[in-house]
Design a protein that fits this description.
This protein has 393 residues and is of the alpha/beta class. The chain contains 14 helices and twelve strands. Helix 11 links the parallel strand 11 and strand 12. Keywords: Transferase.
């Protein structure tokens, strides 16, 4: 029999199959497992795998929900499970590609109705607040109505920092009694990491004496890419002997600002760019070649990229938000106001070079040691069981 990689591609019998397989693989020695089905499913980013790493040890059967509209099928397993919980992560799938504002509102009402029916049948709901609202929101009013509806219906609202609730307040009213804080785990060991700095630089064509600033991950307008390029150019003008390099890697969308950034970057002799999705095995070349990472977004809540940089021992320059201040160790990070002028941004880039030279990888890794994925996952699983009123495992 050929392996079919259940949970990686939806089939005709999804999501029944994924929950069935999760229950079969679960430990039943302490009774029926508690099913936790999560969506949307992100395979390129190992965040979810890290977050749920220890859940099986705490009585959960974790299953990907590849067809998120098919909530009713989750309850087909009610007799086989002690409980069934739906964990919503990013919810941009609800309105993705919808051009009409009125139809967007109808879709919001529809999915909230399905969630209501799921809960009426005994299901529990958890929502993780990843962003203040979806990055590519075309119908902001509808997206915020959806987000508020989910927050109102959630039994638990998972945030990655205590300051998230205040950051959301402008857009979504969150009941503080529902909030459960579980930090973003670091990525140490989640990506292939066998190459050296020298080999990585040789592969990419970067000299040993260059200071390399890295922008890694999806290239989106909200990441302020053009402002980053302008600040980098100003730094080159101010310090022409500095030997700086801007390294960019990640899949690009079709926003005009992103396309302009790519066009200018490809012609820039101090910018090295790979504007396409980077396989996990190749991420190490960009991360090991860099001296520091940039997460200077114009709109930001949490940042997996910041922790990815730090997981490879890199100091970062990040947008100055309460959540990122709470997340990043102060001795390994610098901060920049989201509305800072280009000259201030350039000055912080120069300061980042000094920080990179004075900070060791050990300094950075020690600062995120408390974000060990197994420990974060185990604590989250235990706390979630308690908050959902599940029997102790």
């Amino acid at each position: 029999m050929k392996v079919n990689y259940t949970g990686f591609q939806a089939s005709e019998v999804s999501p029944y199959l994924e929950v069935h397989q999760a229950l079969k693989a679960a430990d039943h020695r302490n009774g029926k497992p508690d099913v936790l089905a999560y969506t949307s499913v992100a395979r390129m980013n190992p965040y979810q795998a890290l977050l749920y790493r220890s859940f099986p040890d705490h009585g959960f059967a974790v299953a990907p929900l590849l067809k998120p509209f098919e909530l009713r099928d989750l309850m087909l397993h009610k007799s086989r499970a002690s409980s069934i919980t739906l964990h919503l992560h990013w919810v941009n799938w609800v309105l993705a590609g919808e051009p009409d504002a009125q139809r967007a509102q109808t879709k919001v009402s529809g999915i909230l109705g399905r969630i209501d029916r799921f809960k009426q049948l005994g299901g529990k709901l958890v929502w993780t607040a990843h962003n203040v609202y979806p990055h590519d929101a075309a119908h902001l009013e509808a997206e915020l109505a959806l987000q508020q509806g989910i927050a109102d219906r959630s039994d638990v609202i998972h945030t990655m920092a205590a300051s998230t609730t205040a950051a959301l307040a402008e857009y979504t009213n969150v009941d503080a009694q529902k909030v459960l804080v579980a930090p973003h785990p670091h990525y140490r060991g989640a990506y292939e990491d066998v190459t050296s700095r020298a080999e990585a630089r040789a592969v990419l064509g970067i000299d040993d004496d260059e200071t390399v600033f890295l922008v890694f991950g999806a290239l989106k307008e909200y990441k302020g890419l053009l402002r980053t390029l302008e600040a980098f150019d100003q730094l080159l003008d101010q310090d022409p002997s500095g030997r700086y390099r801007l390294l960019v890697a990640g899949g690009a969308d079709d926003h005009p600002d992103v396309q302009e950034f790519i066009s200018r970057g490809l012609l820039h002799d101090r910018v090295l760019m790979e504007p396409s999705k980077i396989p996990g095995s190749k991420a190490q070349y960009f991360l090991r070649a860099a001296d520091a990472g940039l997460v200077t977004y114009t709109r930001s809540l949490n940042s997996g990229a910041a922790l990815l940089y730090q997981s490879f021992g890199l100091p970062v320059l990040a947008t100055d938000t309460p959540v990122l201040r709470e997340t990043l160790p102060p001795h390994t990070a610098l901060f920049l106001d989201a509305n800072a002028a280009v000259d201030e941004y350039a000055a912080q880039l120069k300061a980042l070079r000094a920080l990179a030279r004075s900070t060791t990888q050990t300094d950075v890794l020690d600062g995120i040691a408390h974000l060990d994925p197994s420990a974060v996952s185990s604590t989250f699983a235990q706390d979630l069981r308690s908050r959902l009123g599940l029997r102790q495992h």
